[in-house]
Design brief:
single chain; Beta Polymerase, domain 2; four-stranded mixed beta sheet; metal-binding; magnesium
Length: 99
């Protein structure tokens, strides 16, 4: 179970190569309450990713989300950064921490 932003960032950095190999992840970043240091017990973990074009599929999207939830022990709100709506992308850009 994760405790704070550093736990999540350490996990993402440590497992970045595995996520790239298994799911085609080319970038990953943390945003939202954990990135801001404002997470509560009931907070989900907000993560934005980019996938290799040939790996973009619902199977890989749900696979990486399931993998992250199992490993981190929390609900993960996963988004593909390049497909976020302009307002959401602007808000995410202000606080995202890429690993």
């Amino acid at each position: 179970m994760v405790r704070d932003r550093n736990d999540i960032l350490t996990f993402l950095q440590t497992h970045k190569d595995e996520m790239a190999q298994r799911f085609g992840v080319v970038s990953v970043g943390l945003f939202g309450s954990y990135a801001r240091g404002e997470a509560r017990e009931d907070s989900d973990i907000d993560i934005a990713i980019e996938l290799k074009p040939e790996k973009k599929s619902l199977s890989n999207f749900f696979g990486i989300r399931r993998y992250l939830e199992q490993q981190l022990g929390k609900t993960v709100d996963l988004g593909i950064e390049s497909t976020l709506k302009p307002l959401a992308r602007k808000m995410v850009a202000k606080e995202i921490i890429h690993v």
